[in-house]
Each structure stands twice: as C-alpha cells, then as structure tokens.
Amino acid sequence: MFTGFAALILVTASARSLAAEVLSWEDCVRETREKNQDLVSAKKKVEEAWADRAVTRSAVLPDVSASSSGTRRSTDDVETTAYSAGVSGQQLVFDGFKASHDLAAARENIKAAEYNYAVTSSNIRLELWSSFIGLLGAQEALRVTQDILDRRQQNVDLVTLRYQVGREHRGALMTAQANLSEAQYDLEEARRNVSLYQRRLVKAMGREVFGPVEVRGDLVVPVSGEEPPSFEKIVEASPLLKQVVAQKESARFGLKAARASLFPKVYINAGATRSGAKWLPETEGWSAGVSMAIPLFEGGKTQAHIRKARSAFERAEADERSERQDVILTLAEAWTQWQNDVSFVFVREEFLRASEERAMIAEGQYSSGLVTFDDWTIIEDDLVNYQKSVLQAKVNALVAEGSWLQAKGVTIDD
Q: Which of 53, 176, 197, 241 is positioned for an S-S bond with 159, CB 3.0–4.6 A?
C-alpha cells in the first residue's frame, strides 16, 4: 500500500515537473530586476528626490511673468477703453545663502534615496536567494525522502520475513512499519514544501500570477577556513550606513538654511509695460529696482524652526553613530553564522559517510542474525537522520552566505 501511494506521488510530481518552468539563478535575478514592486517603489523614491531638487533649485532662478488686461467703462454716456500688457521679472540676489543650503540638502536627499534603493535591492536579493536555495533544497529533499522511503520499505520486507519464520517478534515488525509511515509522511511534507517554496520564489521575483517553477543548480558549499575580515572597514561601504550619513548631511544643511532665514532677502526687479486705448497698446513704460525684506518679528517662528532643525541634526548624528555599531555587529554575526554553518556541513558529511558504512555492515549482520533488531534499527535511524541533516545543513550554509552578502550590501544588480 505504501509503495503504491509513493508511486502515485512520484507520478504526480513528475507530471507537474513536466509543466513547470525551469529557472536558473540568473533567470530569477533578471526577472526580479524587471518586476519586483519593492524595487519599483524604491526607484520612484529616487525620482521624487530629483523632482524635489528641481523644485528647490527654482528658488535661485529668475521668476518671470506676463500679464495683460482690457477694460471698458461708461460714465455719463461716455465710453472709454483701456488696454495694457506687460512683462515683469524678479531675481533673488541674496538670502543669507539659504537657497544654496536648501539645494545642498536636496542633493543629500537624492543620495539618501539612492542608498535606500541599494538597501532595498540588497534585501530583495537575500529574499530571492533564500527562496531559490529553499526551493533547490526542497527539490533535493524529494529525492532524499524517496530514497529513505524505499529503504524503509526494504526494511519492512526483511523484518516481515524474519517475523513469519519466527525469528523476530511482533514489536520489531510494528516498529519497522512505523518507520515506514514516518518516511511516507516525510515524502508528503517534502512535496508540500516544494509548492510553498515555489510560491515564495514567484513572489520574490515579482510575478503577479503563480505558476509552478523548478530551479536549476547545485547545493555546493565552499570550504571553510576564511580569516575574519575587518568589519570596521567593510562598514564604510554599507549602503545602509551611507544612507544614514546622507540623511545627517541633509539635516546639517537644513540647520544652516534655518539660520539663514534670519538674514534679509534682496531681489532685483524689472518690468516693461505697454498701455493705450486700443489694441495693441502703444504707450511704453518700464521699471527697474532693488527690493529688500528684513524679518523683524514673526512671533518666534524662525527661532522655532532653528531649534527644530538643530534637534533634527543632532538626532541624525546619534542615528549615524548607532547605525554604525549596529551594522558592524550585524556583519560580525552574519560572517560568524556563515562560517559556523559551513563547518557544520563537513562535520555532518563525515557522520553521514560513517553511518552509511555502518548501515551496510549492519544490514548483512542482521540478515544473518549476528545483531539484534534493536541494534540494527538504531544504526538505520542514524543513517536516515544524517541524510536529512546533511541536506538541511547545506541549505542553512548557503542561506547564511546570502545573509553575509546582504550584510555587506551586495545588491540584486551586483
């Protein structure tokens, strides 16, 4: 019964795999760049920052406007008509460098938005990598659990024969059958995990409609032994820290701009007009001059703006110091976890090779009656557990590698 049900699962899985789209890591990266909506949102934030800079820059450019009017009046049955047209312009000459500080702050905001895009891209790369490796591991788990199921079925057959001839007790047979049921469950779980990781990968790529996919690749873990890098040097290239630094610099220029509000504003004004009783007016006129506005009393608004800007700058300085230490610690934790997981893979593989050798020897001994069922089943259980743990250890090590790259700021575009 168990063999037939397992065959049905494999046939179903095979039919699905025929219809599934096969993707490499490069395929997933390419599609994610185009479709992931979090990336799109981060790009739009950069565009918004550039637009804000253009708005800020307009304050230092000439302000030119044109006007025209026409009126008709009647007084004591006498009608008069008047037309006028003109052009006027105004140019900021001096404002205590407030406009230049605002423009510098806008440039820093652009940098912050660009670094925010890099941070978003790095996070998306980790999500994509984790989903890709997860699906690759789930696909491999199907093969491993099927091998385990086949082995458990062979064990049941062997114990059944010995039970039928009176060389084994009923408890041993029931234990072998329970192990077979567990193997069947593991296969079903692996099949469900494949479907789950397919959805995670499709979501990470930015697809709106789910469809079955498979991934192509190998669970190859690099050899460990790398010396710890200088986290204090690596942190300087972190886009997350650079974003915080840009925000601090923007706040610095914001404080300077707030202080500049105390200075007078000086403008050059010029205009030309034409007026008359008919269109086009023929009487010409012009004007030119200089104007200055000095803030005397605004109810304390300017001083309040300065205090607010100073607090924002001091907060940004504190955020930078805190974020620097946070990133350094994250780098150290990610690197340590990666190296630990890599080392653990090779330890598990040694145990797996040893358990395979023990299982091969013990199977012959049990068939010949040289070892008891209790001793043999312990060895068989060890083999099954190490087969599972090696696979999980490889997945963990590769995901940890992705976390290390994310901590360094590697993006989906790198």
A: 176
**End-to-end CA distance of the chain, in Å?**
51
In the chain, which stretches have pLDDT less than 50?
1-3, 5-11, 13-17
Beta strand segments in 238-346, E: 265-276, 283-293
**Per-residue tokens: 234:** 């690596």
Task: Give, as one character, the DSSP assignment of residue 220.
Answer: -
**Residues composing the chain:** 414
d(CA 406, CA 234): 12
Bridge partners of 73?
80
Cβ(410)–Cβ(125) below 8 Å: yes
Q: Computed from CA positions of residues 234, 237, 239, 245, in that sequence, does the dihedral angle turn out positive or negative?
A: positive
295 DSSP assignment: -
Q: Which residues pair with 86 in a beta bridge?
A: 67, 273
Q: What is the pTM of this model?
A: 0.85
Token pair listed for 173: 């047979």
d(CA 365, CA 213): 44
Domains, in order of start, for the chain = 2-408 (1.20.1600.10)
pLDDT of residue 5: 47
